[in-house]
Structure formats: C-alpha cells, structure tokens
Amino acid sequence: MNLQESPELQSFREEVRAFLADNLPPDIKQKMEMGQSLKKDDYQRWMKILAGRGWLAAGWPEEHGGPGWTPAQRYIYDEEYGRHSCPRVLPFGVTMVGPVIIAFGNEEQKAEYLPKIANSDVWWCQGYSEPGAGSDLASLKTKAVKENGHYIVNGQKTWTTMAQYADWIFCLVRTSDEGKPQEGISFLLIDMKTPGITVKPIVTMDGGQEVNEVFLDDVKVPVENCIGDENKGWTIAKYLLGHERTGIAEVGKSRRQLQRVKDIAAAETIDGMPLIEDTAFRGKIAEVEIELLALDATILRMVSAEGAGKPPGPEASLLKIKGVELQQAITELLLEAIGNYGSPYIREAMDHGWNEPPIGPEYAAPVAPHYFNWRKSSIYGGSNEVQRSIIAKMVLGL
Amino acid sequence: MNLAPTEEQKLLIESVERFVEKDYPFEQRRELAASELGYSADHWATFAELGWLAIPFPEDQGGLGGSITDSCLIAEQLGRGLVVEPYLWTVILGGHLLSRSGRGDLVEQIATGVLQTAFGFAEPTSRYNLASVETSAADSGGWRLNGHKAVVFNAPAADTIIVTARTAGDPRDEEGISLFLVDPKDPGVTLRDYPTVDGLRAAEVILEDATGELLGDAGAAYPLVEETIDRGIAVVCAEAAGIMHTTLQMTREYTAQRKQFGVPLSKFQVLQHRMADMFNLTEQSISLSWVAAVKAESEDSLERARACSAAKVFIGKAGRQVGQESIQMHGGMGMTEEMPISHYFKRLTLIDTLFGNRDHHQRRYSDLLDDKRFAA
Description:
Number of helices of chain A: 12
Order of helices and strands of chain B: HHHHHHEEEEEEEHEEHHHH
Mean pLDDT of chain A: 95
Mean pLDDT of chain B: 97
Low-confidence stretches of chain B: none
Largest sheet of chain A: 4 strands, mixed
Distance between the termini of chain B: 19 Å
Number of helices of chain B: 11
Largest interface: A-B, 50 and 45 residues
CATH class of the largest domain in chain B: Mainly Alpha
Number of strands of chain B: 9
Structural class of chain B: alpha+beta
Helix content of chain A: 40-55%
Oligomer: heterodimer
Number of domains of chain A: 3
C-alpha cells in the first residue's frame, strides 16, 4: 500500500497538466472561472481540442480511438482535468452511447458512429426519461413498431439535456408488451432531423434552459439503428448506467469549487475580518474538505482494485451518492459565502460580455442560480434513492 | 500509487482474520473482559509467535521492519472481532516511544511478548491538548515526578508506564516536555485501577516523588509525543473501521431474520436506505484509515497531522452514526447486554473521545486549511 506515484505516472501528470494549461482558450477559461454560461460553440471548440489530442474519449480502448489508459492514468487525468477550469466533456456521446456501441454494436455500427463521437463531429442527447417513467424507467411507453424495414416511433421523452443542440438521440423504446416491462425494451439511435421530432424547452428554476421535452410523432427509424437485439434494451440501459463509475463523483471539480469557496471567503468580511477566519464558517469548509478526502480515498481504493482486474460493481453507487451530495454542499457554501449578494438576479449578468457593472462582487451573480440548478444532480442519473436501493439489494443483499 | 494491500499484507490480514474467526468467539471476549487480567496472556503469546507484536519495529531492535500500515491492517481485523488484547497501548504507543528513544532492549521485550506498557499522556484538566502537562519532574540526583496522569489505558497490566512530565516551561508549552519511564511498583506510584465502559482496563496514575527514568532528551519530547499519538490515531481509526464492518454485518443479519408485520425488517425501504448509508460510511472509513496509515509514516509532520486528523474527524462522525443506527435497528434487543452489538457500539462510541474527539481534530485540521501545499 503506498500513495507514491511512479515516475511514469508523474510524467503523465505533467503532460496532462501542461496540455490543459496551454490549450484551454482564455475566453472559455474566464467564463468557467466566473461561473458564466457556456454556449454550444464553447463546448464544441473545447471538445475538438481534446479530440485533436486523442483525449476526448478518455475511457475508450485504443482500437476505437481512445487513449487506452490504465485505471491509474484515468484517475490522474480526471484529477488534473478537475483542477483546471475546463468545461465538462458532455457525457452523452463519449461516456454514454459510445461505450454502448463498443459493447453491443455490430461492426457497421461501430464504423459509422464511433469515429464521429471520438472526434466530436456529432452531438448526442439521451432519450430515457418520459413523463410517466422517471426512477421507474422500465415503465416507459414510447412505442416502436416495425414496418417495412423501419421502426415507426411514437411517444414523448423528457428532461432531455441539450436536445436543442443535438444531432442524434439514443432512445429506449417499447418494442413489445409481452412479459415483464423490462423484457420489451429496445435501444434505438435516431437522427434528430427525422421528420416528426419536435423539441420544446423546459425552463428550470434557475432560469436556465438546458432540458427539453422531445416529442416523437410517427418518426421513421431504419431497423439497422437498433443496437443489440430487439427487446434486449434493458440490459444495455443498465450497462450504460453502470459504466465508468469512478469518474462519476467528480472529486477534482469539487476540489476546485471548494478552493473557490476559500477564495471568496477570504475576500468577504465578517465584523471586519475575513469570513474564512470565522470559526463557524471555517469549520464547515473543513467538514466538506474532509468528506472529499474520504471520497477520494474510496475512489483510489476502487481504482487500485480495478488495476488489479477487479472493476467496481454496484458498490460504486456510493460514489454517485456522495459525489453529488458534496457538490451540492459546496454550492450551498458558495451561496452562504456571498451573504446578501445572493439575492440580485439579472439573467444577462451570467453571460460573458455583459457590459454593465456587476451588482455586488463580480463573483456573486451566478452563485444562487448555480445552487438552484445543482439540486438536479441528486435526481438525475439514477436518483440518490435509487442508488441506495441498488446498494441495499445488490451489495447488502437485503 | 496503490491503495490496496500488497500480497504480503493480504497474508497478514488472512492470518488475523483466521485468529478472530476461530479463536475469538464473542463469548470468550466477554469472559476475558470480565477476567482479572482483562485479556488473555495466551492470546498475547500467540500474537508474539505470529510476529504481530514485532512488525512495526526495526530489525536491529528485534522487530520485523514492517510499517504502521501493517499494524493498521492488523487492527482493522482485530476491530472486527472486538479484540481486547492491548495491541494499541503496548505495541503502537509504548513500543514506538521506546523505539524512537533508542530503547531497543525494551522494544525487543515487547516484540517477544514479555513486556506490557502503558502511556500516560492525559491529565484531569488537559482534555485533548498533548502539551497541557502539569505533572512535573525535577532532577535532584535522579528524576522525581509529581502529578496525576488520567485514564491511562493498560496501566493495570503494565510492567512499565511511560508518562509525559514537564521539566521546563509553562503548563501548555510544547517546549519543556519530557518522557519518563516509571515503575508501577515504585512506592511513589499509586494506581487506581478500573474497567472502562467499553470493556478495557485503565487507571488513574498518581505520582508522588516517584522515581523516573528519562527517555530521550529532557524538554524535547513533544514532537515524538505528537507523532506517536498520530500513529495511535491511524491504528484506532483502522480498528473503528473494522468495528463498523462487523456492526453493519450484524445489523444486516438481524434485520433479515427479525419479522414484524409479517415480513423481515430488511424488506422495509426506510431501513434499507439507512443500511446503505451505513455501508457508505463504513467503506469510506476504511479507505480514509488506509490513507491515514500511509501518511502516519510521512516525514512531513503537517502532512501526517492533516491526514490523521481528517480520518479521526470522519471516523468519529461515521462511527457515531453507524453505531447509533445499528442499535436502533436492533430495537429492544440492541439495548441488551446480551447482544454483541451493544458492545461494538460502546467501543465505537468511546473511540471518538480517544486521542481527541471530532471537534478537537476538526480544529486541528482547520488550522491547516490555508496551507498552500494542500490547495486544489
């Protein structure tokens, strides 16, 4: 047992650190540091830069265009990535549908879709949730009926993140009503330009517009767009949710955000002294930081086991639960840190290039919206309650 | 970089695991805790035979040249069986103080299982401040000590007791603290022995012109005291992680067989999710105790302090929650002396107060919060 990085890992870390520092465009970096909203072009430019280095599909094997890193390299990459103010890599292509195609797709499908994902040529979105199917995903009703070499798809998806920008959507659809609900589901890839698809935005409580409703009305999808066997989509859905678990907690990003709490708390004052000197607030920072250490140690333990050939199973649900709990706790500390200036709300103040002077300190504007927005994290991706049930059943055998 | 036991460490873990499973049924623990000595001399001899007592010491002192990490892995398994033998007090605390003070002769006796030690670092009003030492030592052709050392674990069985005493400076100065060996049979040493609420043995040690033998240099012992207690923290955190593991297993098994409203308790989602939380806390406690174990050996005392205090805070809190939840889910049975769970709960609870509780270590950790080396 040791925490010493080998010389090889150390130089790998240097390489990652230097690349991220040298290649992140300054305007994007500034938006990230100020918590301003990112546009499609910002994501696209950055993901293209990563793709150019071969690091966009960080978890993929070499033969499909990934870097083929060991679990330890991947851990270091994630840590360095979180340390820099890089936009997140949108997960829908590289960590969701990509690994599914690698594991379940046929050769034609791999050749057609994977390079475009690894190059960030095509934007994906996820068609899982429906108005009546949230945590109980298997109750989904969107129907696909086979007709002359096509599926005709009818139904509605919801909470579809960035559907307004997406070129393609991967969907769970019902292809059979026989047997248990899980047994009649298939996994379809659908071109968003197909006639019959309508996208309507949903405005969230922070005023943001990242999720959508997607209506599918007699949408014609070629049968060769089905991944895996028809009616076997549930296996794929579960595989997707269980894939790449150790990165899910985003400890690196939380560490950077906690540093932001400290910086802001050093700038804010309470009774004439820096807020960070206040015993109560300092104690809260320490508490979150210690919990981050415990989570990070647990990830390192799982990464070490994975390196020895034992990838994490359902116990990795704890990483999701704890990871987002800490992310949320940090958004709360930020809101507490800015005091009265949590209140002002001018939507444009969160946009880059807003020309008016800030109200209060310049770091204040996005803090409250971000706190509100981040309540989503314990709801999506299998809610924290679903994750606890997974641990109870699959790990503890209850 | 590998936070996993080595092949050698796996063998060590298995050997302790076998001992706990085969030779340490809970009924025996109950009997040993109630016995005159408070533990088993036979088991202690077995520990010596298996090399567990020699592991953390250098080879030229009769040790096996192992690491504190090895000791932590032993302690984690001992914790699973709620073992009462004085591994922490004699080997981890006493052994390290003697080893670092060049007393290889005594270390060798610990390694072979013939010497028991205790470390008196606390006083009635010191709370958790290791520098708060009012016991005094004066050299008048031989050191004479006066003072009161509080809650000295394993003192009743100790052949020699190591104490902190002030040879210079004011009551809370780090400078001026020295370490002494005192003989419990010395006429100037009075022990008031008692059992502890978690099944161990301790004593108030009263020193009245007691004869002391100086360990190391006079007035310069504080860094070693702090280092030794940090190592103790790593080991007791590992013990706590092991206790939590068993506590969760017992709760899982109990709720699976206990039926109410016609179904096993374990089928109620309100309990399932709370057991999932217990699992999360237990796993993170194990992980963090491993990090503390590795860093307890760090040359950099701040890095060591930070990791050990972090673990002590996290495990203090986690232990409280896991322990309280386990009793709640055992219902009335959890309240009984008869059920092992109540004994696990008691030890877990008292571990928080040992070597400084959550508040103490959160303050110690907070003091390092602005240290640039630990910035994101």
